[in-house]
Amino acid sequence: MQEQIIAMISEIKDDAQLANRLNEHSSIMEDGGLDSLQLITFLLKVEERFDIEIDFEQFDFDFLESVTAFCNYISELQKTASV
């Protein structure tokens, strides 16, 4: 899942080299360099790719502190969606 998230960020930024610079500890906002519009695009792509629904009103931006934290968040959404 981490590779897919990193690939999505790289695709949105249109920077193939970015995928080589990001890792599981990278901040999605700071290291990924997403602006607000790119962040929305990223979250919508994540929803579509992982078949989840992100509640934007309740979303905690702390999940964007690292790729790992965001992947854990997605995994939790997938678990609750399948119950």
TrEMBL record:
<dbReference type="Pfam" id="PF00550">
    <property type="entry name" value="PP-binding"/>
</dbReference>
<dbReference type="InterPro" id="IPR036736">
    <property type="entry name" value="ACP-like_sf"/>
</dbReference>
<protein>
    <submittedName>
        <fullName>Acyl carrier protein</fullName>
    </submittedName>
</protein>
<feature type="domain" description="Carrier">
    <location>
        <begin position="1"/>
        <end position="78"/>
    </location>
</feature>
<dbReference type="InterPro" id="IPR009081">
    <property type="entry name" value="PP-bd_ACP"/>
</dbReference>
